[in-house]
Amino acid sequence: MTAIIFDCDGVLVNTEILSARAYRNVYARHGLTVEPEAFQKVLGLKQGDILKTLRGSEGGLLPVEAEFELTAEILDLIRAHVEATSGIADVLRGLQLPFCVASSSDVARIRLSLETAGLLTRFEGRIFSSSMVRNGKPAPDLFLFAAESLGVPATECIVFEDSVAGIVAAQAAGMYPVGYLGGGHLPPSQAELLRAAGARALIEHWDEALPLISTLA
């Protein structure tokens, strides 16, 4: 393996917890209830695709005009509360292979998340968003674009993902998908779900990442 691709939300930073809070808050203001299991089903998708499918338990979708309200709430929570996942800074310092971030979020949100968490300088010039490709995860487009931009074959990339959609996308791209289970937003069943989606390995803490990478490099 010659390159590493990281998802952002829930992998590099703890934003999935914050996003779920924002969705619950905004949906509630529009008379809709979002249950935790409903949000888990759309984990890893880009916001536009989530809003097409995430219904309140009452059956309705968020009004189209409320998307800006949702985006603003998410960004406010990120500015106030985002943190890097435990141990990721050490992994980034120890990596000997080129690496990048490939996320379903838009570039502005990725940069805000990484900057607030103190990780942005590690990824400058290597930030890839679903807004740069036609199809978001679980399609492989984003990961293929990231590999091409890094100048490495897709089959030579290790991908760290926390979502089923991300693992499916990495598998479809011909990459080596690794499921990251260290995010506090994940249910106990996530390990089984990621395995079923195609994860070739699972890690619960970033301490496990460098030893795993060294066996594959």
Characterize the overall form: globular
Low-confidence stretches: none
Instruction: From the alpha carbons, calculate the radius of gyration and give it in angstroms.
Output: 16 Å
Largest sheet: number of strands, sense, barrel closure: 6 strands, parallel
β content, as a range? 5-15%
Topology:
Blueprint: E1 3-6, H1 15-29, H2 36-40, H3 47-53, H4 67-81, H5 88-94, E2 99-103, H6 107-116, H7 120-123, E3 127-129, H8 141-150, E4 157-161, H9 164-172, E5 176-180, H10 190-197, E6 201-203, H11 209-216
Describe the structure.
Helices cover 45% and strands 12% of the residues. It starts with a strand and ends with a helix. It has a six-stranded parallel beta sheet with strand order 3-2-1-4-5-6, with helices on both faces. The mean pLDDT is 96. α10 (190-197) links the parallel β5 and β6. It has 217 residues and is of the alpha/beta class. It has eleven helices and six strands. The chain folds into two domains: 3-13 and 83-216, HAD superfamily/HAD-like (Rossmann fold, 3-Layer(aba) Sandwich), CATH 3.40.50.1000; 16-81. It is globular.
What would you say about this model in short?
The protein folds into two domains: 3-13 and 83-216, HAD superfamily/HAD-like (Rossmann fold, 3-Layer(aba) Sandwich); 16-81. It is built from eleven helices and six strands.
Task: List the keywords.
single chain, 217 residues, 6 strands, 45% helix, globular
